[in-house]
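Schema walkthrough. Field components (list of strings):
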Amino acid sequence: MKRIAVFTSGGDAPGMNACIRAVVRTAVYHGIEVYGIMRGYSGMIKGEFVRLDSASVANTIQKGGTILKSARSQKFMTKEGRQQAFDQLVNNGIEGLVAIGGNGTFTGATLFEQEFGIPTVGAPGTIDNDLFGTDYTIGYDTAVNTALEAIDKIRDTADSHDRCFFVEVMGRDSGYIAIPCAIGGGAEIVMIPETQMSTEAVIDSLQNSWRRSKTSFIVVVAEGEEEGNAHTVAQRVKEAIPELDTRVTIIGHIQRGGAPSAADRMLASQIGIAAVEGLLNGMRNVMAGIVDRKLVYTPFSDTINKKKLINQSFMRMVEILSV
Amino acid sequence: MKRIAVFTSGGDAPGMNACIRAVVRTAVYHGIEVYGIMRGYSGMIKGEFVRLDSASVANTIQKGGTILKSARSQKFMTKEGRQQAFDQLVNNGIEGLVAIGGNGTFTGATLFEQEFGIPTVGAPGTIDNDLFGTDYTIGYDTAVNTALEAIDKIRDTADSHDRCFFVEVMGRDSGYIAIPCAIGGGAEIVMIPETQMSTEAVIDSLQNSWRRSKTSFIVVVAEGEEEGNAHTVAQRVKEAIPELDTRVTIIGHIQRGGAPSAADRMLASQIGIAAVEGLLNGMRNVMAGIVDRKLVYTPFSDTINKKKLINQSFMRMVEILSV
Amino acid sequence: MKRIAVFTSGGDAPGMNACIRAVVRTAVYHGIEVYGIMRGYSGMIKGEFVRLDSASVANTIQKGGTILKSARSQKFMTKEGRQQAFDQLVNNGIEGLVAIGGNGTFTGATLFEQEFGIPTVGAPGTIDNDLFGTDYTIGYDTAVNTALEAIDKIRDTADSHDRCFFVEVMGRDSGYIAIPCAIGGGAEIVMIPETQMSTEAVIDSLQNSWRRSKTSFIVVVAEGEEEGNAHTVAQRVKEAIPELDTRVTIIGHIQRGGAPSAADRMLASQIGIAAVEGLLNGMRNVMAGIVDRKLVYTPFSDTINKKKLINQSFMRMVEILSV
Amino acid sequence: MKRIAVFTSGGDAPGMNACIRAVVRTAVYHGIEVYGIMRGYSGMIKGEFVRLDSASVANTIQKGGTILKSARSQKFMTKEGRQQAFDQLVNNGIEGLVAIGGNGTFTGATLFEQEFGIPTVGAPGTIDNDLFGTDYTIGYDTAVNTALEAIDKIRDTADSHDRCFFVEVMGRDSGYIAIPCAIGGGAEIVMIPETQMSTEAVIDSLQNSWRRSKTSFIVVVAEGEEEGNAHTVAQRVKEAIPELDTRVTIIGHIQRGGAPSAADRMLASQIGIAAVEGLLNGMRNVMAGIVDRKLVYTPFSDTINKKKLINQSFMRMVEILSV
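Field assembly_structure (string):
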């Protein structure tokens, strides 16, 4: 392998640049050429390739977002789109890919490899942490810390005014972000898709605490909570306990940005190195991840089909710590 | 004057604790006793008084929120409520008050002084900065910095995805928070109550930029914008320019919390000292403020009735800087 | 067991309060009484005990330092001192201890248990991360992030002025803090006790880069580096490469303070719960830790005598990433 | 005037990039061309000119350091050097300069204008705030906040261990940085060049507090303090009060870096606009500044020769607030 390319795809995550940097420098270290593809599969189809060297990624490790940008590509879902992407890669002499993203990205890469034989090694770049094959995804630790800093600020005002705040954090299918936000933020209750706590149970719990003359509360709600988002839950609680002064904060997209944390820079760097060395060792259709502090390569078929379960003991922690 | 009391009222603001601390220590310095009243006028009526000394406020200067808590009091709006409050003050030997809050607080204090003769000196504690009689209010600088840090994170993801973000910041009646957020956040457009920019003008401006192939945008919207809040504006823009990938972030209550900035600690400390020394010098019904770096006392009637106008040159700055 | 006590000892670390909070609430949850001992063994000898309940630790999870304070005790090194400590515990009806600290603390606890039979379960509270029996110690993640934020700021000025900065981070016996600071901070070189890189090698490396017209550098130096501290190394480099504009920054004690990171709050909470539940299950002379995301109890004799080795692959990472 | 150039000189300061950005966009707004000169006068002599347009400064407002870099130039001190610089400007068609820096920079510009007639308008870019002609310099507010955040962390550990910390902040000739750090950081004592407090007075004050059983202290020392730096003072205090557990932290170069605060971005933007519009209006040998919230242009001869005095009431504040 003489020349590889790297791209980011799906939602951006802090640490993506640290991973790109590691990919580039590892390629340089091993004497192979490396290109960046702008805007993921969309740029691959259009041929938006940029030659990268060691200096191209200087001073990027601390930057949020992705210098290669990200975009969705409907066209790559079609055979015709993938054919165009393949032609672009061939024309540019690119023999292997590092794809930084999530399962949507890896699904595309799997299909692409089956049809055209271009090998891809994946890097788990998503704040959601819901990828099988790695303990943590790139961006997760930063997103949690960002949300937690916001909750620390909200607690100031919740305490000052004896209020009940419903704080919605990201996490479409899982409570990975919500759990440490709740435990670290000293929240009384956490609502996540995995446990399906009913709004009635939330109301009961708040009423009990209110009677014990607790007057300020934080309830962390995961975005993908089936019982409804933070506004819906707050509305129903307000109806049931009118004397409660409720407020809602949706932390939202600020969780995606910002300088990556130390842990995310380490993880992104480890995985970026591993992805390139995996490609050089002939791997394909696998994602590089860290499980129990050890590097592992997991087939895309497993990252896509297997579910990473949340540690059930965390729910018990919320219960004990809000005693 | 042998004994005074201090309380916070209205929305909490970072730096209120620094101001309480300055009030307490200035009282101690001048050899007078000082009490804290919990929950503003509500606690005054109920007699929730706490003796404070120098040690009570140790390690509070950096804390967000207010250690004396804040609450609204319907009862203080009634003659009967104010009578009860006066009785409580008399019973506790309190001869003067420092009220940290905004115009609602000062209106109550004015009435209270007229009826019962208890002197109050006010301190401008509100993130909104819309108080005549001081260049900056306590909490404003911190709130702006908090919002700006959020916008910095949003810019990461706006750039990575070529998106248009509508970011709503606090400011019910004015653009004081929105303006520095827009200028400091590198926003293309700012919508504030003072200028009544139409949504059509926003659409025009975005369309123009889009045609010049600019692809990511930040539009800062003040909460009290008459054209509607960020969601409404974003909705109408999306209808007019469907190819624009729009997103909305409401920064919300996190702007109220957090450790106060250096400027807010300085301002809160200066004003806390000035409030006590004003009381000792026989002042009443005035707010201590800093105008052009000099201490001034402004009658409550002026802080309530006069409007502090936003510097019009700031709108021109947004225009020049987004060229 | 009806009543236990918790104390912090040794250097303070962010997350100690989160751990104290978890200890207190777990005790309450299990229906046992809990006391805090001020100033570690010193306060134990003097009988500085404070009754704690759930509310005592409200709003402490985000606080740096330790609300129970910490101190060294020469007296506890003597049999007489330990006898006094034992008498105080007996007089206060305390049957078990949770000690948050490092190996010095655990050594004392072991001796104490052998002589007087009071069981202790330890919690690894130190920013240094050099404790066998846990992947990470409480405070480590925060300290690394604090140092890294400082390095991010230093890089701004290093780049602007084409300078070579020698940044000294904490870590008396190991490079645990220095390694992620170097990788995450984009440093060119890291000097840690474990590898004993000579100053000559540093000079060689800088000279090579200088010749390739690289002009700004960051060298991370662990405090306990045998070749000398940052000032010594910088001095010798300056003598060898006079054209290099060198500067030194000792990050120092700021690494010990600040709000704990999300990871440290989680870890501290998990370990605090585990420590109390370990005591209740009859454990003694063990430290609660998390290894590969699983809770483990390690005998104090192992935490004291076994060495936790740094991952050698990290040194290779620094080499690849600074290519 | 058809073409101007901008450069940064002297120590870097947060907000320099925001100022460069404002200069560039104001030039574009007024239809004139703008170049960046790398490395100040040094790059001017060597002809390191870069054409800048609106996009060149996109996404720079939040960045620390200076994208144009800064350097000292011995050569510009010579007539020959200035002749070369002039030739370069003439060859590149540059008719006016915006110099972002301090008095060293302005002294050079004055001489340059006298000899060669090239007009310069200055922008006060230095963290030190010791420039006559502006209430605040670009970078000052950020530097103070950075130092204060460090002191907040140090207070955690000072309190936990009952220690006395001597914290040295920047400020070679003045206490501008030290004063708000002391007031905002809740320090007991501040030592600044302007007041020449003797170390004996510091010892007296600490001994008095120690006797009143205060056990943790923060003493803020300005870098340029005549009585010696933090290490010297700490050493002498330790000798006089051996029971005090003293520690020293030099905050150092981290004060120069980091994302500029909201106030610094506003100030830098205002001044950048004013500098260009000043040049276009025929000004020369003046610095644009903000005094009492109004734009003023001050002759370089005044910024260099007049001294901006520190507000003496601030010293009284430290005394009252540490009561």
